[in-house]
Amino acid sequence: MRKGFIISAIAGIFVSSLLSYYESPYWLVLLAIIIVLTVIGFRDMMQTKHSIMRTYPVFGRMRYWMEALRPKLYQYFIESDIDGRPINRIDRSTIYQRAKKETDSMPFGTQMDVYAEGYEWMSHSIAPKNFHILDKNPRVIIGNKDCKQPYSSSVFNVSAMSFGSLSSNAIEALNAGAKIGGFAHNTGEGGISPHHLRNGGDIIWQIGTGYFGCRDDEGNFSPEVFKQNALRPEVKMIELKISQGAKPGHGGILPASKNTPEIAAIRHIKPGITVASPPYHSAFDSPIELIKFIKQLRDLSGGKPVGFKLCIGRGNEFIGICKAMIELDTFPDFITVDGGEGGTGAAPQEFSNYVGAPLLDGLAFVHNMLVGYNIRHHIKIIASGKILSGFSIVRAVAIGADACNSARAMMMALGCIQALQCNTNKCPTGVATQNPELAVGLVIDDKKQRVANYHAETVKNFVELMGAAGIENPRELTRSHIYRRVFMNEIRTYEDIFPSVEPGGMISGNMPDRYKLDLATAYIDRWN
Fold first, then answer.
1. How confident is the model at residue 451 (pLDDT cuts 50, 70, 90)?
2. What is the mean pLDDT of residues 261-271?
3. Alpha carbon of 85 to those of 80, 92, 133, 357, 412: distances in Å?
4. Looking at residues 243-252, what average pLDDT do you find?
5. Which CATH number does the domain housing residue 420 bear?
6. Whole domain around residue 22: which residue ranges?
């Protein structure tokens, strides 16, 4: 790293001087090489655009030599896939290009296998809408009848990533990018840090099972401590995390190497120890207690929008929550649906790979239940789980989402190269580390603009895709707009794959048979 380079340069100059003392004929050649490499190295350390070169002077240049060989070497060998789950290489390159404001047009046409099983596309119109007449910054008002401070949200925001998982520089760059672009930054369950507040970006405060930032000395929820943070003007919404797509049924993990005194003070925990959040909440233990807790949070926050995040598991449990909402006539302002494909820096592979419904299935189910119980108008739905592109947003909105969150793509906009060192505290780009020698490579002033660029370009492409479909408003997107090839010679729309429920169908009994068993075993006073 930087210190090692400086030591090596000094040692090289010393050796060349020693050779000159013994009148070696090679000392001038060695000295010239060392001087050239030293100048290059110091130039690398001073520049602000490339995290790897800034942290690993001279040696870091090899990464960019490989990048110049795109698409073969860089895409296949340098950019590994998180959790062994492939990200479309075209989407991945597009994230980097949009963040850097580089040309993202595609030479030689589509590079997708359009006849492969699973290929998806949207239907366009012969009479598309002119992009210039469309709303370039579509917003979503989040807040129902009980909300006193509704929030105008972008359709695309930063998903939950905690300070602790990410470095202070990464958190500040994300929040500053959100401020520039007018979108929201979810804190993750690690609590609100000074790095979330320094740049004034809109904050969604996430509360997990550890109640970091709102807990007492025993780790239980503290209304008094919660209120202090909830009333901050930067906090626009509050999200209660029930479960996370990357590890549903498993609490969050902060490795001891990342648990610095600063992070421990923010979370009200002991520093230097591995912190595993409980897999469940202690503040409630049934659907009706959950809804009462949401009402309590809303009241304590002064009427700000309050919702919850979950990855769908047992359908009857979510139906029980819907019944509890109706029983109390109290509704969350939003529900964030996370997919089982969501990423994380620390989770057992069995949980990452085999637990929790994928986003599209969970999203369709949640939307159907809210429509089936005639309560959809009270609640906005936010989709989270590998939202990478304008098409990702179109697809989610078509199924039932009002807005989308992204974590993985925002990390890549920061400069993440998917080195898969998130849980080791050795992230080479300074994104997912608490090592100050690595974090210094991430320059906030450069990366905040990249985050804002990526958001702006992705929203722009979302709007352009709507125009191509001949519609002006995201609410006009339906499941019939999206097609998937399920076999070589068979194509289905999302309406075929995820059939809609008619309004009130869960009450009248006019519902698909697959929901009837879940309905019969759904309770408001217990989970099962």
1. very high
2. 87
3. 9, 13, 39, 15, 16
4. 76
5. 3.20.20.70
6. 2-78
